[in-house]
Specification:
Length: 285
């Protein structure tokens, strides 16, 4: 049990962020579950349907899984709130081992084409989805260095998915580049920085759309929300982790490398044949 492992996961009220928090909680980590949702159902999906999940519920599940979940309400559009988050982590834990930058500003019209028919508000993902993660990493830097070994994971996505707003893809491409540049500064301190591409994930929002349509879920190869978490956990255990720093990694490929399965009888497949590979400078095949 990694009782001294400290992780900060942004956007962890639900979905991939919560899944990562739970995966690290199962190994006994202290996990700061960061997000805006303090009451379940106050966020809505397409059509205005309330979406379940809150930072408090997720933190309780982390604790129940064997870790120590700490819920932190933080608006990642606010630089001062991000500063306060890491000041709290510094006071309480003294260091950070794993930082997962996952928060994003989502909108139910992200797939509108042409993009100018969608609200300009979709551009907010450049703030909460890219800029906020750079601010978070800036504040986390000294805490990551203090741990003497660290890992930064930017949750990104395939650049040619072509199902979202241009601002979404600009933010994701930015996360890939940030990881590459971070690696240059962090490598002397034994801190790795990577960008991670999950596949299609059966998050709470996605589940509200597909429901129990097993054939559709299996046909799309949808990953469980905690699959990325188990992949990140395996990456942390890799003594050669630093060899991957600066890279854009595909979760399914990394899972295959480490022998991580999603659920019995199902291992996610890479979507690079459909949606393209990472930029050659970042690709770590």
């Amino acid at each position: 049990m990694d009782q001294h492992l400290v992780a900060v996961i942004t956007g962890a009220s639900r979905g991939i962020g919560k899944g990562i928090a739970l995966a690290l909680g199962r190994r006994g980590a202290t996990v700061y579950v960061v997000g805006r949702t303090t009451v379940s159902g106050t966020q809505v999906s397409a059509g205005g349907i309330p979406v379940p999940g809150s930072i408090h519920e997720a933190a309780d599940e982390v604790t129940a899984a064997g870790g120590r979940g700490i819920a932190v309400a933080s608006d990642l559009a606010d630089d001062d709130a991000i500063r306060a988050l890491f000041e709290q982590v510094g006071r309480e834990s003294g260091h950070v081992d794993i930082l997962v930058n996952n928060a994003a500003s989502l909108h139910d019209q992200m797939g509108t084409r042409p993009f100018w028919e969608a609200p300009l508000k979709l551009a907010d993902i450049i703030d909460v989805g890219l800029r906020c993660h750079h601010v978070a990493t800036w504040h986390a830097a000294r805490l990551l260095i203090a741990a003497r070994r660290g890992l930064i994971v930017n949750i990104s996505f395939y650049g040619n998915g072509r199902v979202h707003d241009p601002a979404y893809y600009a933010a994701k491409a930015g996360l890939d580049k940030l990881a590459s540049v971070y690696a240059e500064d962090f490598t002397p301190y034994n801190v790795a920085a990577v960008s991670l591409w999950p596949g299609y994930v059966k998050t709470e929002r996605a589940e509200m759309i597909v429901g129990d349509a097993t054939e559709l879920i299996e046909g799309m190869g949808m990953e469980s929300p905690d699959y990325c978490g188990r992949v990140i956990s395996a990456l942390w255990d890799d003594p050669e982790m630093m060899a991957l720093t600066g890279g854009t990694l595909i979760a399914a490929e990394l899972g295959e490398r480490y022998g991580v399965v999603d659920r019995p009888g199902f291992s996610p497949k890479s979507l690079r044949a459909f949606y393209g590979a990472p930029h050659p400078q970042f690709d770590r095949v």
